[in-house]
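Hi both,

Apologies for the delay on this - the queue was longer than expected. I finally got the zinc ion-bound model through. Below you'll find the protein sequence and the ligand SMILES exactly as submitted, and right after that the structure tokens for the full complex including the ligand.
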Amino acid sequence: MNPSDVEAAVCRSVSASIIGTAFAMRAPLRTYKLDPIIPNWRLISQTEGEKSPAIGIKSLPDLQAGLTLTPPSIPITFKCAPNPFAEGSECIVYHGYDLTSKRAIALKRYKRVGAQFNSPACYMYKIKVRAICTTYATLFNDKTKPPGSARLEVTPVDVVSCPGQDHYLLETFLDGKVEKYSNNAGVVCSESPHSELLQSFSHFTWVVSRKSLVICDLQGIESGSYCVTLIDPAINSLSAGFYGQTDLGRKGIERFFETHQCGTVCRAMGLSGQLL
Ligand SMILES: [Zn+2]
């Protein structure tokens, strides 16, 4: 391993998400082996399931009124690779193919096993987190920022439930290098020119939410200088665990502000000084 590889490995390890709740750390892990190869889909049998309806983009008042989620009810036929190709702190990720929509997909399952990790509710909350993040990204895009600031998008997520009571998170498969900008504990780790914008986005969510949450754990795929598509952002709220296993609560918010330094984007948006 050469020095730059060592640095990259350290960077990856410190910037991984942190699982917050004690029960999450105690639950046993699935057995799996990562395999980066996309399988020959002709050799993979198809699975029938039901998918959650698209939730669409919500306004801030919609979020404040509370989101009502509809359980999976739309038929879907798909194929899932036998082994995952990637893993995060919470989930393992499989290549998949959606035969209904004819598109490559990413299917995610929780790494931990046990009833609390395979309930529809455990998967459905991810839709809520993603809807909140999408709303804040939309508001952020509409604000005046320094010229050349990229637009933020958030990958939508659906929940798929199968007859054997297996559940998956379903996302469109995005091919590209994933850039990690921050984790959920204040660690910033990116030399991307978009890094400052992403840290400002986290600060923006604190201000616009009236100091009730910080969207963090930011990673995404960059499309040139124009757009960053965020994958699986997390929320730190005032109550640890409220937005799932990666919600570190007030401690996570404090850690964000311990490391965050307002730059030109925060100043242009009037965020400077609006701290804890
Ligand atoms: Zn700031």
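Main takeaway for now: The two ends are 41 Å apart (CA to CA).

I'll put the files on the shared drive as well.

H.
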